[in-house]
Amino acid sequence: MTDVLEPHRRRLWGIAYRMLGSIADADDMVQETFLRWHRRDDDELVRTPEAWLVTTITRLCIDRLRARRTERSTEIDPWLPTPIVTDSPERAVELASDLSVAFLLLLERLAPEERAAFLLRDVFDVDYPAIARALGRSEAACRQVVHRARERVRTERSRSVASPEARAEIAHRFAAALRAKDDRALVELLTEDARLATDGRGVRGAARRWIVGRDRVARALAGIARKRERAGAVEERVVFVGGEPGVVTYVDGVVVSISALELEGTRVRAVHRVLDPDKLRAAMGARE
Description:
Layout: H1 2-5, H2 9-20, H3 23-39, H4 49-72, E1 85-86, H5 89-96, H6 101-107, H7 112-123, H8 128-135, H9 139-156, H10 164-180, H11 183-189, E2 190-199, E3 211-212, H12 214-231, E4 234-241, E5 244-251, E6 254-264, E7 267-274, H13 277-285
Parallel strand pairs: 2-7
Antiparallel strand pairs: 1-4, 2-3, 4-5, 5-6, 6-7
Helix pairs in contact: 2-3, 2-4, 3-4, 4-8, 7-9, 8-9, 10-11, 11-12
């Protein structure tokens, strides 16, 4: 029976990660889906295992999202998804369309069922009858949900036309400005309305709100860099984070942050910086 399930693991994990933005939660959802497959009634008719598995993991993720909204009410700093880190420009191109931190944050603005319908249709090419079964709604209703979600995503999503090499070059300039603690160099890289979010689960140094505005973001980033230099030997490594250019920062060989850069043209529109130790371990452990 394991042979029946394993070919679907990657697809199921992809659905769960995009729904939840968490490597650990995606692992849990896949495991729970497999357990439910083994526990299902023997007389339950399953014509296509994939459809059953997709329906099950979609419903599990919707339930998890609803529960998480209650949990989030006690968090004291911005939430960011656990990033997927790679060194490969080729892999970055594959990830950029629907695994970037910016895209996952955009999905957070959609209601759970809206997010599920949009992802199943536009990312995983699931047909509307299957989406309707997964959500327990009519096909017509699912079409409307997907249409609304597409409109929101199309309106709010930023586009960067730069090549992977050009995006990496921006990340190298960003890393160099951090190493130099150079406010002016950072300002030149940022859009006027640039934003900075730090997700630290309350760790020291995490801002409790988004920092908005080019000058404020540049000062904050340079100030953090100065503090880190006093704490030990700092290294900034350029990577791709969910397909976006990014920087992994080490202090005395220990990862202390992962920064994903959301671009608008050739400038940085937003810096999404993960400080949460659990997310850092998960991201580096899954590094591709």
